[in-house]
Design brief:
Layout (H helix, E strand, L loop, with lengths): L2 H12 L5 H11 L5 H7 L4 H22 L1 H27 L5 H24 L1
């Protein structure tokens, strides 16, 4: 996983566990793509202090992930969701090409849509 994406996901999961100052600095660095020099100017500190703070915040977020594993569970669930969607699409394609009665096809398609919608709802609430 790309480092910046990982950092933003870790922030999404664990950002509320940071202090307000840490949240401000980290979101400026990650979401506003500010350099250490820009962070130093914005938050009235040295470039080295900005670098050290970002490094400590990353370490803290990675520590939370190591203990709680929310990002890992999210990634696994996302993969399973993608597999489920692919299976439903494959089943739908098979139905379209089959010689099953039209009313049975419509009924099965309806159930497949319902499975997709329900699984998406479950994942969205994750």
């Amino acid at each position: 996983m790309e480092e910046r994406l990982r950092q933003s996901l870790l922030y999404d999961f664990y950002g509320e566990l940071l202090t307000d100052h840490q949240k401000s600095v980290f979101s400026a660095a990650i979401f506003d793509d500010m350099s250490y020099s820009e962070l130093a100017e914005e938050f009235d500190c040295s470039r080295q202090a900005a670098f050290d703070l970002i490094r400590r915040i990353n370490k803290k977020l990675e520590g939370y992930e190591e203990r709680l594993g929310l990002l890992e569970r999210f990634t696994v669930a996302q993969g399973k969701m993608n597999e489920l969607k692919a299976s439903v699409i494959e089943m739908n394609d098979t139905l379209e090409n089959s010689e099953i009665d039209k009313s049975i096809k419509n009924n099965l398609n309806s159930h497949l849509r319902e499975i997709t919608n329900l699984s998406s709802e479950i994942f969205d609430k994750f």
